[in-house]
């Protein structure tokens, strides 16, 4: 059994991670978002910033501050359906970032006349550029999405922004909700290596991983009332040619035709369920998912889910 980390080790851990040049947020993601400014029907807004501390090769600390962006598409007429798309909650899961940003760049304006759309392309820019699940303080952002008390600045800013967007659209009417939301995730190769080692260091425990690693896409939702619609989205993704995880169990619970019905407090899906009629999480799984994979291929099945959010009718 490993020795669990001390608080000092937890505090210093993120500083020792190295920025990967092909993931440098200021060079690869922020410029693509900035390039969207000025397009008719689309608005780029900054909803906060996060400062990250790193150690350089000489051991000196330097800081990088990254803006957090939301892309608003449509005229935000409160009578139109509103969909929310979030990527990069777990920074190392690059496919969600690529899918959200690609959708904003190439397809979102096609829906601007009929929908309001909020796109958060990269919720966790620091973890994105060091390719990790956790942020500073060894916090998992997808266990930190609470109305009050978020510990990470990334999630604190996101929670505040969603509340502000809801207030701007619906005023003080708390009975009204956004229509659909999708938080885009992966279960990539790193989950068999870095993440398991991290959990052992945090907990001082050894974790076993199933011999059969999930392959394909599945979706997670916390509300049984949404199950039929989410299953329809799964079928649409499968019809587009993308494999669906067919294991009998997903995280130890029944696989309901490609859907895991599960509620976990602190996840973005659970938080968004308070503001959205239908909220879901994507899980694109596979040992083939890593940074040597072409970005467009990595994002393809996630884009299929996004399109299905708009095309699938409500289920009565």
Walk me through what this model shows.
The protein has 316 residues and is α/β, with parallel strands linked by helices. It is built from ten helices and ten strands. An eight-stranded mixed beta sheet has the order 1-2-4-3-5-10-6-9, sandwiched between helices. The chain has a two-stranded antiparallel sheet with strand order 7-8. It starts with 6 loop residues before the first helix and ends in a 5-residue tail after the last helix.
Question: Which features would summarize this protein structure in a list?
Answer:
eight-stranded mixed beta sheet; Aminopeptidase; single chain; 10 helices; about 325 residues; about 30% helix; alpha/beta
Oligomeric state of shown chains: single chain
- Following the backbone from N to C, one meets helices and strands in this order, namely HHHEEEHEHHEHEHEEEHEH
Number of helices: 10
Please report the distance between the alpha carbons of the first and last residues: 52 Å
What's the CATH topology label?
Aminopeptidase
The biggest beta sheet is recorded as: 8 strands, mixed
The low-confidence runs, each spanning 5 or more residues with pLDDT under 50, are none
Radius of gyration: 19 Å
- Corresponding CATH architecture: 3-Layer(aba) Sandwich
What's the name of the CATH homologous superfamily? Zn peptidases
CATH class: Alpha Beta
Give average pLDDT, whole number.
Answer: 94
Structural class: alpha/beta
The figure for the number of domains is 1
The portion of residues forming beta strands comes to 15-25%
Helix content: 25-40%
Strand order of the largest sheet: 1-2-4-3-5-10-6-9
Number of strands: 10
Coarse shape: globular
């Amino acid at each position: 059994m490993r020795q669990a980390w001390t608080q000092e080790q937890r505090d210093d851990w993120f500083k020792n991670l190295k920025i990967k040049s092909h993931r440098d947020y200021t060079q690869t993601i922020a410029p693509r978002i900035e390039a969207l400014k000025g397009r008719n029907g689309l608005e780029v807004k900054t909803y906060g910033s996060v400062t990250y501390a790193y150690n350089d090769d000489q051991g000196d600390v330097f800081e990088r501050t990254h803006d957090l962006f939301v892309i608003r598409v449509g005229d935000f007429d409160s009578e139109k359906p509103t969909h929310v798309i979030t990527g990069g909650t777990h920074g190392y899961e690059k496919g969600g970032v690529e899918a959200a940003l690609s959708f904003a760049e190439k397809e979102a304006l096609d829906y601007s006349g009929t929908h309001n759309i909020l796109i958060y392309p990269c919720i966790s820019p620091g973890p994105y550029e060091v390719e990790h699940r956790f942020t500073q303080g060894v916090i998992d952002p997808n266990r930190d999405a609470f109305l009050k008390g978020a510990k990470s600045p990334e999630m604190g800013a996101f929670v505040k922004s969603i509340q502000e967007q809801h207030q701007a659209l619906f005023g003080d009417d708390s009975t009204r909700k956004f229509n659909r939301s999708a938080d885009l995730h992966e279960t990539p190769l790193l989950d068999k290596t870095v993440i398991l080692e991290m959990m052992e260091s945090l907990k001082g425990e050894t974790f076993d991983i199933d011999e059969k690693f999930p392959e394909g896409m599945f979706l997670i939702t916390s509300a049984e009332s949404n199950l039929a619609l989410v299953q329809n989205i799964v079928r649409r993704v499968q019809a587009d040619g993308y494999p669906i995880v067919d294991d009998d169990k997903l995280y130890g619970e029944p696989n309901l035709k490609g859907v895991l019905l599960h509620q976990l407090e602190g996840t973005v899906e659970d938080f968004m369920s308070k503001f959205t009629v239908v909220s879901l999480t994507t899980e694109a799984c596979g040992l083939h998912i890593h940074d040597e994979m072409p970005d467009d291929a990595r994002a393809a099945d996630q884009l299929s889910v996004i399109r299905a959010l708009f095309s699938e009718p409500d289920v009565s």
